[in-house]
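#data-curation
PF: Archiving a pair of folding outputs for the training set. Convention for this channel: one message per protein, sequence first, structure tokens after, nothing in between. First:
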Amino acid sequence: MTDMALAEFRKARSVELRLAGLEYEDIAKEVGYSNRGTAWRAVNTALRERVDSSVEEYRQTELARLDALQSVHWDKALFGDIASATLVLKVMGQRSRLLGLELLATQAGEKSFNTVVIGGTTGEFIRGLKMVDGITDD
């Protein structure tokens, strides 16, 4: 096997193992990387390059996990639960990174993301969250 073929095999196998739930340390040992950082870079490179069909499966699995987590906390966030609102915003950020939206914005010469700050009373905070989601109180 050529060096190039071995590198591509390791990348693809790393994504498969991550999809199966293995930690980066274990992935490194399994595919012969020197450390967990190399395994992490291989998985992230594969995600960017889409070198294997399992990359899309991994992406969809992670998106489904994020969707499930967000759905549990969404209504709580809209009705003033600060911890749920914080978690929802983190989930939204992770989804944006997973989909490469920040990278696209950066490539287009824009800032990588916009920050929305919602302050005020609990009622104002809830109204602000609803505005972000496009919900009206009509």
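PF: Second:
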Amino acid sequence: MTKEKFSELVLECEATLYRISMSMLKNESDCEDAVQTAILTAFEKLSTLKKEEFFKTWLVRILINVCNKQLKNRSRIVGMDEAGYGAKEPSVPSPVNNTEIRLALEKLPLKYRNVIVLYYIEGFSISEIKKIILIPEGTIKSRLSKGRSLLRQYLE
């Protein structure tokens, strides 16, 4: 794959990468760092991509790994925001216009929020999500069901 083709494919995925990282990290600067790190990692590991048609799925998987690593590191450090200092974090930008739905999405535990965002907002199929998150299809379906149920509860 040429550098130009890589750049073109990354630009096509940019909004998706941003929304997924914001849904996980909920902090704009962390989100930007995660997206940049994922793109750099993808470029460095481009030789491991077997089929170009799976580029977006492959890149999203890298991004989720980067976000999970940041969350793991964040949980080890008590930052100023967690100690009560600092500004309120921005809400997740998404094509969902309803503020109540976005707030309900933010309340979901991460494992449910990830599959809901990937399936309903980003439009990935269950088999694509399986490749991204590396869990069985049955688990994805049950998380979608549980996530929808929790969203209903939050919205009532």
